[in-house]
Amino acid sequence: MNNKMWNWFNERYKIDSLREFAQKKSVPLHSATIWYYFGGITLFLFGVQVLTGIFLLLYYRPGVDTAFESVKFIITKVKFGWLIRSVHSWSANLMVASAIIHMFSVFFHRSYRKPRELSWVTGVIMLCLLLTFGFSGYLLPWNELAFFATKVGTDSARAVPFIGDMALRLMRGGADVTGATLARFFGLHISILPIVFAVVLGVHLFFVQLQGMSKPLGHSRDDGKKRSMPFVPDFFLRDLIVWMVVFNIVLMLAVFFPWELGVKADPFSPAPAGIKPEWYFLFVFQSLKFLPAHIGPFEGEMVGIMALGLVGLAIILLPWLDRAASRERRSRWLDAIGVFVLLYFAVFTILGYVLD
Amino acid sequence: MPIEHTPNYSVSRRRFLDLLLGGTGLAALIGLFYPIFRYLTPPEQEEAVVSSVNLGPAKDFPLNSGKIFRFGNKPGIIIRGSDGKFRAYNATCTHLDCIVQYDAKVEGVWCACHNGRYDINGRNISGPPPRPLTPYAVKIQPGAEEILIASQDGAQG
Ligand code: HEM
Ligand code: FES
């Protein structure tokens, strides 16, 4: 912006203070600085999702008689429709992956410790929203795999004591997975989730900007030299380069491995072999397979779902549970749990692919 | 002593007003969210109650085979064993709601979703299903030799 324009705006809107706010943050430099890129990558991919999502909306038509057909139309008739759809699917998956990586890096660096508890909480909320994005989006093409995955996924809500049946009806818009479910998931996916996500993201980013970047626990050995880099413009320009790389990866995946459509869902045919949820739910799915029908007096599912709920609660409350980190100490014990969770996730995901 | 009474009186008036305001606010919130919650809960729909279906001539069903059919808005499965006997069940897996299929190799019912197995009599024998399949009554219409399916209790199940 040239000086005259800047002054014109500044006189009226005090944009100097905005610039100051933007320049306040600096990024600590250390051997683990590379992990700082993953929040930004997630942010970039969210932008990709919003843009391609809006494009898809121009042709997609929800409804049991139109959804599958309209997606087929997009990928066969609309010029570059296959590309837009493929990018939306691939980028969604990479976005979940990068959010998970981001979260583990925040975890192992203990960046959630005081005063950044609420950055963590908003982050966990976004991860939940992101999984809901994935789950609702998966059903939209109304193909066989997604239909049965959604049946199974929503039916497991039944295992939650007391509110299970009500939650099931709320999610499905009735007793079964039908057009009503599709309408619900559609509304959620294209309107409610994006708005809520954008608001929480705004809060998350505001917190990060306000508090600056934390130094990871264990990397704070001071050798006297100041080791950091201004976020604007130095680190941000690096972010941009990483985004270009990520974008190219997305494009290459989309071009060389176009997303499949499969066959249309038929509520009156047997479930095909090999139904699978999206990979980030696979570890749950795989764990359910190993659960016996009954554990003591309870159904296996109920025990599994309750355990999952407890883990979720512990994750949200982590900044308060980790007393060591708030005293700037690293709990080896917690590191071990983190590694265990990571391994469990990895092993069960892989098992989900190689078994059957 | 009126002077000491006044502050007491004014504190309790403040509390009273706070309570009134808070209570009104709470009532307004409930009044706002209750209709929203009810709106989101889908209404029970009147479904045409189907108490029996006709699946056509018995001779159309080969031995050791199974087939999915519509029973109202539910999927059913009809199985003809190698013994020639017909059995029918609600095809919804008792585990997590998938639709089962007949596995001719082991002469049993199989659910692909989590590898659940039932025997030909609908009993859950391995994998995660917690309960047997819900059976339907099978009648063979005398004369016409057509298969009639009815649920045990007359309603669709
Ligand atoms: C889902 C979309 C998300 C987006 C777009 C996003 C974006 C960002 C960005 C751009 C940053 C600054 C750069 C960085 O540290 O990487 C950041 C920091 C942070 N994020 Fe996220 N994030 C997301 C999810 C999460 C999740 C799932 C968590 C944890 C559960 C989380 C917790 C944090 C914390 C605690 C920080 C501060 C890190 C520090 O100061 O060292 N975020 N986020
Ligand atoms: S739904 Fe049939 S085994 Fe899980």
What is the secondary structure topology, with strand pairs?
The complex is a heterodimer of chains A (356) and B (157).
Chain A: H1 3-13, H2 15-23, E1 26-28, H3 37-57, H4 67-76, H5 81-108, H6 117-139, H7 144-155, H8 164-172, H9 179-211, E2 228-230, H10 231-256, H11 279-290, E3 294-295, E4 298-299, H12 300-316, H13 318-321, H14 323-326, H15 332-354
Antiparallel strand pairs in A: 1-2, 3-4
Helix pairs in contact in A: 3-5, 3-10, 4-5, 5-6, 5-10, 6-9, 11-15
Chain B: H1 2-40, E1 52-57, E2 65-71, E3 74-80, E4 86-90, E5 101-103, E6 108-111, E7 116-118, E8 124-126, E9 135-140, E10 146-151
Antiparallel strand pairs in B: 1-10, 2-3, 3-4, 4-9, 5-6, 6-7, 7-8, 9-10
The complex binds protoporphyrin IX containing FE and FE2/S2 (inorganic) cluster.
Defining key terms:
heterodimer; A: about 350 residues; mainly alpha; Cytochrome Bc1 Complex, Chain C; B: about 160 residues; alpha+beta; Rieske Iron-sulfur Protein; six-stranded antiparallel β-sheet; 1 helix; binds protoporphyrin IX containing FE; binds FE2/S2 (inorganic) cluster
Provide a descriptive summary of the structure in words.
The complex is a heterodimer of chains A (356) and B (157). With 356 residues, chain A is mainly α. Chain A has a domain at 33-219 and 229-277: Cytochrome Bc1 Complex, Chain C (Up-down Bundle), CATH 1.20.810. Chain A is built from 15 helices and four strands. Chain A has helices spanning 3-13, 15-23, 37-57, 67-76, 81-108, 117-139, 144-155, 164-172, 179-211, 231-256, 279-290, 300-316, 318-321, 323-326, 332-354; strands spanning 26-28, 228-230, 294-295, 298-299. In chain A, strand 3 and strand 4 form a beta hairpin. Chain A is globular. The mean pLDDT of chain A is 92. Chain B folds into two domains: 12-45; 52-151, Rieske Iron-sulfur Protein (3-layer Sandwich), CATH 2.102.10. In chain B, the strands form two sheets. In chain B, strands 1-10-9-4-3-2 form a six-stranded antiparallel sheet, with no helix packed on it. A four-stranded antiparallel sheet of chain B has the order 5-6-7-8, with no helix packed on it. Chain B is elongated and about 90 Å long. The model of chain B has no long low-confidence stretch (mean pLDDT 86). Chain A binds chain B through residues 148, 151-152, 154-156, 166, 169-170, 172-174, 176, 180, 267-275, 288-289, 291-294, 299-301, 356, and chain B through 40-42, 45, 68-70, 73, 75, 91, 93, 95-101, 111-115, 124, 127-130. The structure holds protoporphyrin IX containing FE (HEM) and FE2/S2 (inorganic) cluster (FES). FE2/S2 (inorganic) cluster is lined by residues 93, 95-96, 98, 111, 113-114, 116, 127-129 of chain B. FE2/S2 (inorganic) cluster (FES) binds at residues 93, 95-96, 98, 111, 113-114, 116, 127-129 of chain B.
